[in-house]
UniProtKB/TrEMBL annotation:
Required co-factors: FAD
Glucose-methanol-choline oxidoreductase N-terminal domain sequence ranges: 249-263
Keyword Flavoprotein applies: yes
PROSITE patterns to which the protein is assigned, alphabetical: GMC_OXRED_2, PROKAR_LIPOPROTEIN
Keywords, in A-Z order: FAD, Flavoprotein
PANTHER family recorded: CHOLINE DEHYDROGENASE, MITOCHONDRIAL, GLUCOSE-METHANOL-CHOLINE GMC OXIDOREDUCTASE
Keyword Flavoprotein appears in the UniProt entry: yes
Protein name per the record: GMC family oxidoreductase
Family: Belongs to the GMC oxidoreductase family.
Length: 510
């Protein structure tokens, strides 16, 4: 829909209608404020309008080729990698595997210890409960666990793990289970449905979709954010507001800051961008969960078991998660093993089985850097995979691979697996690390590129309330502010961040 006139000023301008942006906008609207929400992708309306594409609604599979931003990069071995990010209202909550996990309390306690007051686990526990309620999270019953995942559970228990559905708990431990899912009657419940739909008819809400934000509009003197420039249908527009909230994610938020002249002075100078505020931490501290996949052709027995199950029940591809502790762990677990199946017409029995293992507490850090001042030129994204000097990230993944091959593919699961679709078995033990470097991918969880921390820390970008250091009227509320990525799938923590930052905004506005 069209926005307010360029000359009109709204209370809050939310840049990015993804997982966090929909939450922030809804909470500000609930408090009676005028909100303009700008989203680069399409807005298909409320759920009841019936206009949403099927692939974004179907929770059985990941729609990774749909509504993607197109970010690309390379892995530790030089292999090409896609960094899929959803360009649609609801963002990656309209794209994800629907498995929601909270992580471990100690990670959030560390956020608080590093200078982010009020972000300890005890302070966040109620926010997690509210987020789970809003997303209408539900647990699979025993009857709903499909045969592939039932065999995975049995194999994991045979390997000595406890069977426990505690992935939503901040004190959860090593084990295997099913996480709660944002799935309602087979439909993916994204944050646009869960939070924004209730305010669709409000005259205080303006949604401007298919609009690419180029820069935050900075007023000189006090260095204050007073709006944003965005391009829609080839035309440049300006939206003005009393306060600007950036919710563009771990790639988009640093991109917009850098194009606005907020970031490392040297990098901006190289691109000919005037430096409004020197914040060396913008685009630094990028983190992502590295992952390695072992893949197998599904057996005839698997195909038969899945067909029998699908004849009477909904068949999700992804259900179970193992929390595993490697020798490099700094807490109760540091790995996820999160298997799935996917149809593959090129295989004899029509199914592929995938066993990924991901390092949840990477020591490696990377960057988001602009290629040029051109807003249409995607940033250079480099998570710095497996670059930590102590090689702990690599060692954790090696441990996880060995656990899978020893306990899963050779255990109860073996009857469902045909020939291997990877070549790891051809490598000697001394060559496994190199295989990991050349074959790793990621868990779709970028974070940390505008880190939250004490104002005395030169690499902090935002204070504990999300306000950008050195810029009045500008706040960030998304995964980019994570000081360290929690050992979780981050959709649920991002909703918690959005809820908490919205409260800070409301307290400040009053």
């Amino acid at each position: 829909m069209t926005g307010r006139p360029d000359s009109e000023t709204t209370d809050f301008l939310v840049l990015g209608g993804g997982t966090s942006g929909c939450v922030v906008a809804a909470r500000l609207l609930a408090a009676g404020h005028r909100v303009t929400l700008i989203e680069a992708g399409p807005d298909y309306g409320s759920l009841i309008d019936g206009s949403w594409p099927r692939e974004l609604l179907d929770a059985a599979a990941l729609p990774l080729d749909s509504h993607d931003w197109g970010y690309c990069g390379v892995g530790a071995g030089g292999q090409p990698l896609r960094y899929e990010r959803a360009r649609v209202l609801g963002g990656c909550s309209a794209h994800n595997g629907c498995t929601q996990t909270a992580g471990w309390a100690g990670d959030y306690d560390e956020w608080a210890a590093q200078g982010s007051v009020g972000w300890d686990a005890a302070s966040l526990s109620e926010d997690f409960e509210h987020a789970m309620d809003a997303l209408r999270l539900r647990f699979y019953s025993e009857e709903e666990i499909q045969p592939f995942h039932r065999a995975f559970i049995d194999s994991s228990v045979d390997a000595g793990l406890n069977y426990q559905h505690d992935l939503h708990q901040l004190d959860g431990a090593q084990g295997v289970g099913c996480a709660p899912v944002n799935v309602v009657d087979g439909m993916r419940m994204n944050t646009a449905f869960a939070f924004l739909d209730a305010w669709r008819s409000s005259p205080e809400l303006t949604v401007i979709d298919r609009a690419h934000v180029e820069t935050v509009l900075i007023q000189g003197g006090t260095v204050a954010a007073v709006g944003a420039r965005y391009r829609r249908d080839g035309q440049l527009h300006v939206a003005r507001a009393d306060r600007v909230v950036l919710c563009a994610g771990a790639y988009g938020s640093p991109e917009i800051l850098l194009r606005s002249g907020i970031g490392p002075a040297g990098h901006l100078s190289d691109l000919g961008i005037p430096n409004a505020v020197h914040l060396p931490g913008v685009g630094e501290n990028l983190q992502e969960h590295p992952a390695v996949h072992l893949e197998y052709a599904g057996s005839a027995e698997l195909a038969s078991a899945l067909a029998d199950f699908a004849a009477t029940q909904w068949l999700p591809e992804e259900q179970t998660v193992v929390k595993l502790r490697s020798p490099h762990a700094d807490g109760p677990f540091d790995l996820h093993v999160y298997p799935w199946i996917e149809p593959d017409a090129d295989l004899e029995h029509g199914w592929r089985a995938v066993f990924p293992v991901s390092q949840l507490r990477p020591r490696s850090r990377g960057t988001v850097r602009l290629r040029s001042a051109d807003p249409d030129a995607a940033a250079v994204v480099d998570p710095g995979f497996l670059s930590d000097p102590g090689a702990a990230d690599l060692g954790s993944l090696r441990f996880g691979l060995n656990w899978i091959t020893t306990n899963i593919v050779e255990g109860t699961m073996s009857r469902f697996l045909g020939h291997a679709l990877h070549d790891l078995a051809q490598y000697r033990d001394s060559e496994v690390d190199e295989w990991i470097r050349r074959h790793h991918t990621h868990y779709w969880h970028p974070a940390g590129s505008c880190r939250m921390g004490a104002e005395t820390d030169p690499m902090s970008v935002v204070r504990h309330d999300g306000s950008v250091i050195g810029v009045e009227g500008l706040t960030i509320a998304d995964a980019s502010i994570f000081p360290d990525i929690p050992r979780a799938t981050p959709a649920l923590p991002v909703v918690v961040v959005a809820e908490r930052i919205a409260r800070f905004l409301l307290d400040g506005h009053r």
